[in-house]
Write a structure and sequence with these properties.
It comes from Hemibagrus guttatus. Residues 30-190 form the Sulfotransferase domain. This is Sulfotransferase. With 207 residues, the protein is of the alpha+beta class. The chain has 8 helices and 6 strands; from the N terminus they run H-E-H-H-E-E-H-H-E-H-H-E-E-H. The chain starts with 26 loop residues before the first helix and ends in a 7-residue tail after the last helix.
Length: 207
């Protein structure tokens, strides 16, 4: 990993953004071997919404995939959740964070509130700039809300006069999941979420 990172000049910050790193078991040790001073930024959102979003993405590329309900449960009638199914497993944030805390202090890990990143991007990016020790240059004047996609857009893309919005794979309508299934998943994640709030010192207020 370290050999693949580009060289940085003084005053530059190099970033690597592979979402899977947070949940891959061997990654914390590899990152620490590369740099013990690295700053880590993790964007998290309600794990139930995240799981449905993940499935929607997978289903768009996988014709004939089984239903969300059949994949999310080991036993639907008993409500036993299949916690090893990737869309469910990724949302066990406390479990993943515990591995990272064996190698890095919490002070080097910054959590971005995913829902608030959409509703108030300037606030969340202000917190990120503070965490990185950067001057707060990005403010609310840099964003406008795209009602069609339901996400904020940058008023100008870097090096362009045109605005920059998320790509067409983002903001697509989620598959419909039965309310009973959503409630079962909320119950499943509840203790994991509480533990995550306690570990991070942040209340994300997921349902």
């Amino acid at each position: 990993m370290g050999s693949m990172m580009p060289k940085a000049l003084d005053g530059q910050i190099v970033m690597e953004k592979t979402p899977r790193y947070f949940v891959t078991v061997e990654t914390p040790a590899r990152v620490r071997a590369m740099s013990r001073d690295v700053k880590l930024i993790v964007v998290v959102r309600d794990p139930v919404t995240r799981a449905i979003s993940d499935y929607t993405q997978i289903a768009s590329k996988t014709p004939g995939i089984s239903s969300f309900e059949s994949l999310a449960f080991k036993n639907r009638s008993s409500g036993q959740v299949n916690s090893l199914w990737s869309p469910i497993y990724i949302g066990l944030y406390a479990q993943h964070l515990e591995r990272w805390l064996a190698y890095f202090p919490l002070s080097q890990i910054h959590f971005v509130h995913g829902e608030r990143l959409v509703s108030d991007p300037a606030f969340e990016l202000g917190r990120v700039q503070d965490f990185l020790g950067l001057e707060r240059i990005i403010t609310d004047k840099h964003f406008y809300f795209n009602k069609t996609k339901g996400f904020p857009c940058l008023k100008k893309a870097e090096g362009s006069a045109e605005p920059h919005c998320l790509g067409k794979t983002k903001g697509r309508t989620h598959v419909r999941v039965e309310p009973e299934v959503i409630n079962n998943l909320r119950d499943f994640y509840h203790p994991h979420n509480l533990r995550f709030y306690q570990m991070t010192g942040m209340d994300f207020r997921w349902k």
